[in-house]
Amino acid sequence: MIDERFERMKRKRNCRVHFDVDSFQISDCIVAPVHDIPDVIHENQEFDFYVETNYDVYLLRIIHSQDCVVSIYPAIVDGIIYIVSSIPVTKDNMRESIQNVLYALEPYGFPKLKNPKSSITFNI
After folding, report:
1. 20 to 30 A from 39, CA-CA: which of 1, 45, 53, 76?
2. Is the pLDDT of residue 121 over 70?
3. What is the pLDDT of residues 13-68, one digit of tens each?
4. Sequence-distant contacts of 116-121: CB under 8 A, at least 24 apart
5. In 3D, which of 84, 88, 50, 49 has the Cα closest to residue 68?
6. Could you tell me how far CA 95 lies from the centroid of its own chain?
7. 57-64 vs 69-73, strand pairing mode
8. Is the pLDDT reported for residue 115 higher than 90?
9. The pTM is what?
């Protein structure tokens, strides 16, 4: 338990550099975009975001796709929990799309999402 808490604290400290003026708040989370979002988004184009909660930091990848699927991948040692979402997005609805993904994660424990033993995939 102490090791897990120490790992979360270390991840939050290491990821702090990604949170800056481009970061924005969604509910109790701070979301930091890794990429600039272009006006035109092409099919299968990917965008990464760091999502910080009071509990941990996660890497969220949004893939512009009609699939409407979310996958949660376990963190390796000293790694970060990786959330991949394939959903239709535009520049104008990106924040709303992120909020929908985060809301869909709640049944799996978000915002206190623990490291799963194996990957989890579900439709939204």
Report:
1. 53
2. yes
3. 666 756 777 889 998 899 999 888 999 999 999 999 999 998 888 999 999 999 99
4. 116/72, 116/73, 116/74, 116/81, 117/74, 118/74, 119/71, 119/72, 119/73, 119/74, 120/71, 120/72, 121/69, 121/70, 121/71, 121/72
5. 88
6. 12
7. unpaired
8. no
9. 0.87
- Burial class from Cβ neighbours inside 10 Å (0-12, 13-18, 19+) for residue 113 reads buried
The token duo for 37 is 């979002």
What is the structure's pLDDT at 44? 96
Question: What element of type H or E holds 103?
Answer: helix 94-104
Distance between CA atoms of residues 73 and 118, nearest Å: 7
